[in-house]
Amino acid sequence: MDSSAPEHSRLVATGAKSFPEALLEMTDAQVAAVRERDLGGRVEKASFPYAKTLRDSDFSFQPSIPRGVVEDLATLGFLDRHESVVIVGSLGVGKTHIAVAPGVEAIHAHKLTRFTDCQRLVSDLAHAAVKGQLERRLRFYAHLSLLIVDEVGYLDVDKQGADLLFQLVSRRYERRSTIVTTDVGMGSWARVFGDPVVASAIADGLCHRCHIIRMTRRLFSTKDLAPQDGAPPVGATNSGVPR
């Protein structure tokens, strides 16, 4: 029952609202609450590390990103065209945030979306292969409207993992959109995947129709965390205990 029902009953009883007006307001409130819970559930199911959109962001810190690309990501135009996005940059430049934000927009648009990192994805596929469920798991990932794979290149991938990723990229090729973040250039993927042929095939599958975003400026540096004028470090109280 709507928690506002007693208040609406009082308003009807005093003549401040008609019964149809009160009923409509309570119905609208219940529908909004259901939609909010549904959205929260879908955001949680997508496994985002946080849920910020591109509209929440200030891109003045990262002028290396063309404004047109940001707008295309925010409006999900790349999804309609089945294009992918590869975000390249060193640690701390905000790659994950740029990858997550379109995913949150996609959830709002009722698009099937999943966030994972490269190692978790490889482990999931390898585990499915051991259990004889690889085909089923590949179909799951291939069906997603948007798959976001974070931290490609942060750790090396063995031959089995590279082969599994190639199978998945092949299934999504020109059918679904994938966002990848990497802290190494694609020219170094041969080292990451241990096989230049497979690495090239994965890169080709992602980059045939894609945006490549190179991020060059850090969100902050360690000097930004240094105390100034006797203030405690960021994340600490006056006693020095982290908050």
TrEMBL record:
The UniProt record lists the IstB-like ATP-binding domain at 4-215
What the entry lists under Gene3D superfamilies is as follows:
P-loop containing nucleotide triphosphate hydrolases (3.40.50.300)
Region labeled Disordered — which residues? 224-243
GO BP annotations of the record are: DNA replication
Q: Which InterPro entries match?
A: DNAC/IstB-like, IstB, IstB_ATP-bd, P-loop_NTPase
Q: Which GO terms describe its molecular function?
A: ATP binding
Where does the UniProt annotation place the signal sequence? none
Keyword Disulfide bond recorded:
no
Q: What is the organism of origin for this protein?
A: Parafannyhessea umbonata
Superkingdom of this entry's organism? Bacteria
Name of this chain's protein: IstB-like ATP-binding domain-containing protein
Give the keywords, sorted: ATP-binding, Nucleotide-binding
